[in-house]
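stage 2 :: seqdesign
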């Protein structure tokens, strides 16, 4: 109950108010400490206010988790109360993740040290070291210099948990090390569940930079930013597509490149400037245009944006697998996925809707 209440951003008094004063804040505190049990009317009201099923409040947690070394990436420092809310929400998400992996007997394989290359975390004494670190990690993971189709799937395939949570507007993402009761740990990257897809991808790569680099004595955010650009847009691939030196570029080409690398035109333009593909005049001209069109400010909506609110898919796949194999009931699967029973039935019984197709970029006047 305490975890769900904190994840909802409610104080004891706030929860008491949300259930219409059925009980006092002091009584709720006793429930959370295990000193007394709520009557059924109160239990139903609390579950409704916290948007969790009653079974969640009554059941024993399948796995006790702890977040260690939590690091927020934000444009402004989030308040302590907001950080606590986000951490609780992340713990709830990862609790469900650990639960379904346990049901499928995957904990040993799934909760492991991430696929760390020899020599990582790479020491960074200047910003160029971050570029070399991204290149070394791509070599270790066998990525070559090709664009990355799905950053979330890639990271989870190499032992990094990725979840999407309702973060505040001033928080882009966070990195934490998650420890289970049995002592196994794994890194977890959390992205904003309402951000555009390209921003989520950049956040994943940025937090991977914090994981893969030893950032001592340099601007950590700048180094992780450089790592993310190099990881998503390798220099050799970008120069092959754009050229080694440009003084002009058209809208259509920019947006084709955006879709190829899965990044914003802002990130693409900045990366081209870092590699000296774009000189300062072209870089400044493009940024002035982005500013005029409102792409540099919230909600950062560019044409041909990747879908907003994309969620990592491995957890959903595991839940559906557990249901298909009879490892969980329909009710438990719906609880794990946080979906209504009819939505669960649709996921199991109907093929996904693939009727829509992406529009092609066009030249803007």
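stage 2 :: out
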């Amino acid at each position: 109950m305490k975890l769900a209440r904190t994840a909802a951003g409610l104080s004891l008094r706030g929860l008491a108010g949300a259930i219409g004063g059925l009980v006092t804040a002091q009584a709720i505190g006793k429930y959370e400490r295990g000193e007394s049990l709520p009557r059924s009317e109160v239990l139903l009201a609390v579950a409704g206010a916290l948007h969790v099923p009653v079974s969640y409040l009554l059941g024993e947690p399948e796995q006790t988790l702890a977040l260690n070394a939590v690091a927020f990436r934000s444009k402004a420092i989030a308040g302590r109360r907001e950080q606590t809310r986000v951490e609780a929400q992340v713990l709830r998400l990862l609790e469900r993740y650990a639960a379904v992996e346990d049901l499928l007997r995957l904990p040993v394989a799934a909760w492991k040290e991430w696929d760390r290359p020899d020599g990582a975390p790479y020491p960074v004494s200047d910003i160029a070291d971050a570029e070399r670190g991204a290149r070394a990690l791509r070599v270790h993971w066998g990525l070559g210099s090709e664009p990355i189709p799905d950053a979330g799937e890639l990271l989870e395939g190499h032992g990094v948990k990725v979840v999407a949570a309702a973060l505040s507007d001033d928080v882009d993402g966070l990195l934490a090390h998650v420890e289970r009761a049995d002592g196994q740990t794994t890194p977890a990257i959390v992205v904003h569940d309402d951000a555009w897809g390209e921003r989520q991808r950049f956040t994943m790569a940025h937090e991977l930079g914090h994981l893969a680099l030893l950032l001592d004595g340099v601007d950590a955010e700048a180094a992780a930013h450089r790592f993310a650009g190099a990881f998503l847009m390798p220099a050799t691939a970008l120069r092959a597509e754009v050229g080694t030196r440009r003084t002009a570029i058209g809208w259509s080409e920019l947006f084709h490149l955006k879709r190829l690398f899965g990044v914003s035109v802002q990130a693409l333009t900045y990366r081209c400037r870092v590699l000296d593909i774009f000189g300062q005049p072209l870089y400044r001209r493009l940024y002035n245009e982005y500013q005029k069109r409102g792409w540099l400010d919230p909600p950062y909506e560019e044409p041909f944006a990747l879908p907003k609110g994309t969620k990592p898919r491995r957890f959903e796949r595991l839940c559906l697998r557990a249901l298909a194999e009879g490892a969980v009931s329909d009710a438990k699967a719906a609880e794990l996925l946080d979906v209504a029973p009819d939505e669960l039935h649709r996921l199991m019984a109907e093929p996904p809707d693939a009727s829509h197709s992406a529009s092609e970029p066009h030249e803007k006047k």
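stage 3 :: structure notes
- Residues 314-349 form one domain.
- Residues 80-103 form the longest helix (24 residues).
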